[in-house]
Amino acid sequence: MIDKVPNFPALTDDCSRCAALCCAAYPFEENEDFAILKDADTACPNLSESCFDCTIHADLKPRGFGGCVAYSCAGAGQRVTQDLFDGETWRDDPDLLEHMTYALRVLRPIHEALTILKEASKLPLPDEVRKALIAKVTALCPENPKSIWAFEDPELQDALADMPEFVRSLAPFVTRS
Q: What superkingdom does the record give (predicted)?
């Protein structure tokens, strides 16, 4: 039902349609989740030079990259690459790196919120609460999703900021299996 909201995005990772944005966007702090220290907006040294593949993907956890194993962009990476940047990549145009990684950092929390709301839509909710949930989803799915500005709209950002309170309001409708 919420999938029918206009501009509702795919919420599953598709690394083949991304430009390894997660491998560049986020900093790593050397700890139990990451074996190295890496700055934001810098490609991970384990990223292949010729493509966007991880050179240690098969051994991430044993090599100290459990954070990479646990990470999910909830589909934001390919949305940034394919929709906002029309398939262009920061490897093709290095000037795009900071713009693309910024867009990922904006879209990922929105996609995470939509993932939560999609799961919440399966709950037995009263009509009033279901309408509020659909309104929240609609607010998080802007009309013109081809520009980063659409995702920085104050109404959308307010809806995102309200997510913790909204999710708490759903607690009475969660049943234990």
A: Bacteria
